[in-house]
Specification:
The protein is of the alpha+beta class. It contains 4 helices and 13 strands.
Length: 250
């Protein structure tokens, strides 16, 4: 009888431990690992929406971990062939219309990417949500579009080159998908909100296939990014991420 009682008590203790809310940093790490992957190829349609016009941009992107990214514009014709490269801490932009290779500084990472509401950092992933921020669990459970989420506040570390004063992220409990992210300036004012929709299965991963970034102070303006293709299974060699490939990859 004592053995049975001891087993019940231990079982209850173990169940309680496993049901505890994960550490905030561990939650963000799982989101990052899910989004990045060791090798990622993607095809993307970006739609820039303004009060009186809109335009579409086609993008192909290759990434190897967090240190290597190559993105090339496939449409429209005016910008076709323009490419962006990240190798470790070096950032480059190839502009075929003027046959010029431009080295980008970290200071431009907070600026608009191709006239959209996404920043250079959003596309090139210069900063790391895991390493460049501290993480605090602000709420163990909040609903975003009827989905249970963790609410995490990310605060930039003092030595990190981050343009934001604070980032707030809502992460789905079931799949560790960032369903909503708010970006604040150093004065605490909301600047942008990114909402993620249309969760789909890409190989072994469940990810959002559509993201909308909405500026806080610009009515009737947004940028929509739709994932046409994701491939996490094809290896990409480090040598692929070269200035030469910026000029020739299609």
């Amino acid at each position: 009888m004592k053995l049975i009682l001891l087993f019940i008590l231990l079982s209850g203790t173990c169940a309680s431990a496993f049901s505890q809310t994960p550490d905030a940093t561990e939650i963000i790490r799982k989101v990052d690992e899910n989004n990045r992957g060791a090798h990622v190829y993607s095809e993307i349609k970006m739609t820039v929406v303004r009060p009186t016009w809109k335009r579409e941009i086609g993008i192909k992107s290759w990434a190897r971990g967090s240190n290597y990214t190559l993105a090339v514009i496939t449409s429209p014709a005016k910008e076709k062939g323009q490419a962006f490269l990240k190798r470790q801490k070096d950032l480059w932009n190839w502009v075929p219309s003027i046959s010029r290779m431009i080295k980008m500084s970290s200071s431009v990472m907070g600026q608009s990417w191709m006239g959209s509401d996404f920043t250079n950092d959003d596309l090139m992933r210069e900063s790391s949500t895991v390493n460049d921020y501290t993480h605090e669990l602000a709420a163990a459970s909040e609903k975003i579009r009827d989905t249970d989420c963790y609410k995490i506040v990310l605060t930039p570390k003092e030595d990190a080159a981050i343009v934001w004063g604070k980032v707030v992220m809502w992460v789905s409990k079931a799949d560790f998908i960032d369903l909503k992210t708010e970006f604040y300036d150093e004065d605490g004012a909301l600047v942008n909100t990114i909402n993620s929709f249309d969760i789909k299965q890409f190989g072994k991963r469940r990810l959002s296939s559509k993201m909308e970034v909405v500026p806080a102070d610009k009515p009737n303006q947004k940028t929509v990014m739709e994932i046409i293709k994701y491939d996490f299974d094809t290896p990409i060699e480090e040598s692929f991420f070269s200035q030469q490939n910026m000029k020739t990859v299609k």
